[in-house]
Amino acid sequence: GTKTMFKGIDALQDCLEEDIGWTPPCALCWAEDIMCSKSHCIFIFLQSQMTNQIANFEVGPETITSATCEEANCEAGNPGDFVACSG
User: Fold this and answer.
1) pLDDT value of residue 7
2) What is the model's pLDDT at position 10?
3) Of 24, 31, 66, 70, which is the most exposed, with the fewest CB atoms less than 10 Å away?
4) CA distances from residue 53 to 35, 38, 57, 75, 86 in whole angstroms, order as listed
5) pLDDT number for residue 13
6) DSSP one-letter code for 79
7) Nearest to 86 by CA among 75, 70, 77, 73
8) Cβ proximity of 70 and 33 under 8 Å
9) Nearest alpha-carbon partner for 3 in 20, 65, 48
10) Are 14 and 46 in contact (CB under 8 A)?
11) pLDDT given for residue 38 in this prediction
12) Predicted pLDDT at 5
């Protein structure tokens, strides 16, 4: 998490390669997706974390979550392209 927040995509990719053991192309694909999610969805994530501290935040089928934000912004070319990158 620290590498994602403060050290940028290169440090994140290195972490995915060295600590998890992914290949460089796979690590880059995931690093780009993580950075896209950070850029577009961080406030939705933080809001849900704060809400869960106060009450039981139940997620329904129409609820916008970090995951639905990531899908909308980072998977199919809006602007990220994780689906094409990951195969």
Assistant:
1) 81
2) 92
3) 24
4) 25, 21, 9, 29, 34
5) 93
6) S
7) 75
8) yes
9) 20
10) no
11) 85
12) 66
pLDDT value at residue 3: 63
**What is the C-alpha to C-alpha distance for residues 19 and 1, in angstroms, rounded to an integer?**
13
Residue identified by tokens 């935040």 is 57
Element of type H or E holding 54: helix 24-54
CA atoms 61, 37, 41, 73: torsion sign:
negative
What are the φ/ψ torsions at residue 70 (nearest 5 degrees)? -60, -45
Instruction: Look up residue 59 and give its amino acid.
Output: V
Rounded CA-CA distance 19/38 in Å is 20
Report the chain (87 residues): mean pLDDT per 10 consecutive residues.
Answer: 75 92 93 88 81 66 76 79 81
Report d(CA 20, CA 29) in Å as an integer.
Answer: 14
